[in-house]
């Protein structure tokens, strides 16, 4: 009899044709770290992160070749408009894509996102004027709602003990994509000039000097699109108020356990009523989104300004780097970021927690960015060493903060609200990120024009 009372009072109910229930059954049998799922999420996120910042190393030269800027100092302003178009498009549609993911599933939104990268990133590389570049970037952002859906997917595909690792994988792939993307752009742009023995000036890569990095990323996204067709869907599709199968029961075991059953029902009713609250009144969610937005504004502005500053002439306070030099710096940063996320971050997060990690990263970023103004005084090996160390530290701090905020956002809501919550976060974040390149580019151009003014002393 004693053994009989130790058995679970209620049995889990799985619906035969529900893809979410099939995933829950799979998780019950899962043992060890789910490497296959981690790799799947990693390549999906990487495919959508690569095109976001891959243009920044060559954007300065692309705008110059469009002959739309009247003065060299105005190039940064036009570059900001192109960089902001992607985020503006994403801001307008992220909530819609989140609602689609909650209604139809995560998988269709993920596939649509990768297809969008294949089409519009390729067209961006073939841009012949400024407005074509702006429109293709806008459509690339507005039709790609992948990131919000994949963050929800990363929580639902793993057992609870591996959810932090899943979200860490999302932010790692995202951060590496934002670093490796510019590296690819730097190495592969203008191939007819850099690699004349391979690419002729009369070839398509000679006539469209910025097509090769876009084509490489689009081909990778095409492979990912084919791969995602075999991803399992995690959304529950049955009429139990979209509750997880872990909260579904098929029968009571015995009438003698009626009091225990009542307590469990009351607990579930409390969960349901809490899950029905408006996302806007969910303070843990909204507070993490607010911090995420402010940091995204800063991070996107940094991403654009760093590349513009690095390739600008020394007479304007830049480093006179080539696109290849910028790509080399960002490649080193990307490799260091991968090592950090796979080895150190999970250990630090377990000790300090996501909130404390985000706080420390935010505080340390401030003095680090202030030091960049002094880097231009160096040259040669010293310059390379200092700029690489600063870039590595900046990207490590950024990805640590983003990962912590991802964890907080997805733990603040139930499954049936997770897609909409991530869509809301993407909308707000995209608005701030849209302001980042435009504001950063305009501020950068303004600063270059005022180097001899009293507010910006001459640094030549």
How would you sum up this structure, described in words?
By secondary structure, the chain is an all-alpha fold. The protein has one domain: MFS general substrate transporter like domains (Growth Hormone, Chain: A, Up-down Bundle), CATH 1.20.1250.20. It is built from 19 helices and two strands. It has helices spanning about 1-5, 20-30, 35-55, 55-65, 75-105, 105-125, 130-140, 145-155, 165-190, 190-195, 205, 210-230, 260-275, 285-310, 325-345, 345-370, 370-375, 380-410, 415-450; strands at about 10, 250. A two-stranded antiparallel sheet has the order 1-2. Helix 3 (about 35-55) packs parallel to helix 9 and helix 4 (about 55-65) crosses helix 14. The radius of gyration is 24 Å and the shape is globular. Residues about 1-10 and about 240-275 have low confidence and may be disordered.
Query: What CATH first level would be assigned?
Result: Mainly Alpha
* Major sheet size, sense and barrel closure: 2 strands, antiparallel
Global mean pLDDT: 78
CATH superfamily annotation:
MFS general substrate transporter like domains
Order of helices and strands: HEHHHHHHHHHHHEHHHHHHH
Count of discrete domains:
1
What is the helical fraction, as a range of percent? over 70%
Low-confidence stretches: 1-11, 241-276
Q: Which value, in Å, is the CA radius of gyration?
A: 24 Å
Count of beta strands: 2
Widest sheet: strand ordering: 1-2
Residue share in β-strands: under 5%
Instruction: Figure out the total of helices.
Output: 19
Oligomer: single chain
